[in-house]
């Protein structure tokens, strides 16, 4: 192959995030459900979460996160021609949250649509946007994870309501032509590899017991916590191994591991399986709880904001969600 062969890659230009105004500590939850700060911290690592108030919705959080990502990238909504929003808690059954964000940003061209893979949604959205960008059909994408899980929680059910929170995160990806050969030490940047999986046989382990076509209601989140835990620790490593292999790297090459922030124990177990040291793991579950599709872009935003993730760093994102759905991606910043 000649040294000047080029290919398009989806390169990260900026990330941003948004949280609701109200922060709810474990102590506050003790007043409304039979739980304790000690139990929640010990089982999950969660210390607080943010809960959307009146006027705060998935799309309003998504718009704020998207605007923050555009600001970091030095771009305007006019520069964007693709918006992919991962959410399981849309403002309405339709239109999509992505089109509401598009309108909220004042963006009148391009295409916007939602992706639904629950907590794995952001990884699915990154993988989807990457395929549009490397095909050459679109130039710049806003990839958003935005959720208000507080609106589908049964606040009487202590086994679920203490685990989740609301928020949004966004990433700008841009199609960039790069040399295939790493000439002059120029390593490829952007999304290097992704791997997605799903297995619908596990529906009953994590689901919402309502919907437009069944109950005609929104429903509440239901979960067999132990089963989800077992699957998350046991299965998610297959997509990580496959992603490492197709990117041609090993876990040792990683600068940062940014997994879905559901539970500290699941994160620790996944990192340990690949020998990823704790110092390389970005952990935000203690501050945000499980914000489903928003958790990874929120964590990326924190780690970019405080200077941990820098240009050139090799980052793996990874998540599992209801379905089950699960996936991983490797990106060089
Ligand atoms: C939910 C989870 C933290 C529960 O931890 P666990 O060790 O499996 O706990 P169990 O469900 O066995 O419950 C242990 C006890 O704590 C109790 N308990 C459950 N929730 C509680 C709470 N919020 N506060 C206090 N006690 C609680 C249970 O009732 C049970 O009591 P019992 O022994 O008297 O019956 C854990 O299963 C988990 O993290 N699962 C994965 C969840 C997840 O990440 N989902 C999202 C994936 S995207």
CATH superfamily of the largest domain: Thiolase/Chalcone synthase
The CATH topology of the largest domain is Peroxisomal Thiolase, Chain A, domain 1
The amount of beta strand, in percent, is 25-35%
Supply the number of structural domains.
Answer: 2
Which geometry do the CA atoms define? globular
Q: Which class best fits the helix and strand makeup?
A: alpha/beta
What is the overall pLDDT average?
Answer: 96
- Ends distance: 26 Å
The neighbouring-strand order within the major sheet is 1-7-6-4-5
Q: List the uncertain runs.
A: none
* CATH secondary-structure class of the largest domain: Alpha Beta
The largest β sheet comes out as:
5 strands, mixed
Count of individual beta strands:
13
Radius of gyration: 19 Å
Pattern of helices and strands = EEHHEHEHEHEHEEEEHHEHHHEE
Number of helices: 11
The CATH architecture of the largest domain can be given as: 3-Layer(aba) Sandwich
- Share of residues in helices: 25-40%
């Amino acid at each position: 192959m000649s040294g000047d062969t080029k290919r398009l890659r989806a390169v990260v230009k900026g990330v941003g995030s948004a949280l609701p105004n109200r922060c709810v500590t474990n102590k506050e939850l003790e007043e409304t459900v039979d739980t304790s700060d000690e139990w929640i911290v010990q089982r999950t690592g969660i210390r607080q979460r943010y809960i959307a108030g009146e006027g705060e919705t998935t799309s309003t959080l998504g718009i704020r996160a998207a605007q923050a990502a555009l600001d970091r990238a030095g771009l305007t909504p006019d520069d964007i021609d693709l918006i992919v929003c991962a959410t399981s808690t849309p403002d309405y059954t339709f239109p999509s949250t992505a089109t509401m964000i598009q309108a909220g940003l004042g963006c009148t061209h391009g295409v916007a649509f939602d992706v639904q893979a629950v907590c794995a949604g952001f990884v699915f959205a990154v993988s989807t946007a990457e395929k549009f960008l490397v095909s050459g059909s679109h130039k710049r994408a806003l990839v958003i994870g935005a959720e208000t899980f507080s609106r589908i929680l049964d606040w009487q059910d202590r086994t679920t309501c203490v685990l989740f929170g609301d928020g949004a995160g966004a990433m700008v990806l841009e199609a960039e032509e790069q040399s295939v050969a790493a000439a002059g030490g120029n390593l490829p940047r952007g999304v290097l590899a992704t791997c997605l999986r799903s297995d619908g046989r596990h529906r009953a382990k994590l689901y919402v017991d309502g919907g437009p076509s069944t109950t005609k209601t929104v429903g509440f989140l239901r979960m067999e916590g132990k089963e989800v835990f077992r699957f998350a620790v046991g299965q998610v490593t297959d997509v990580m191994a496959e992603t490492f292999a197709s990117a041609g790297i090993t876990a040792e090459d990683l600068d940062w591991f940014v997994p879905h922030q559901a539970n500290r124990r699941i994160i620790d177990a996944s990192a340990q399986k690949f020998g990823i040291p704790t110092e390389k793991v970005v952990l935000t579950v203690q501050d945000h709880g499980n914000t489903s599709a928003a958790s990874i872009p929120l964590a990326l935003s924190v780690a970019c904001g405080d200077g941990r993730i820098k240009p050139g760093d090799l980052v793996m994102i990874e998540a599992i969600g209801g379905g089950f759905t699960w996936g991983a991606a490797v990106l060089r910043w």
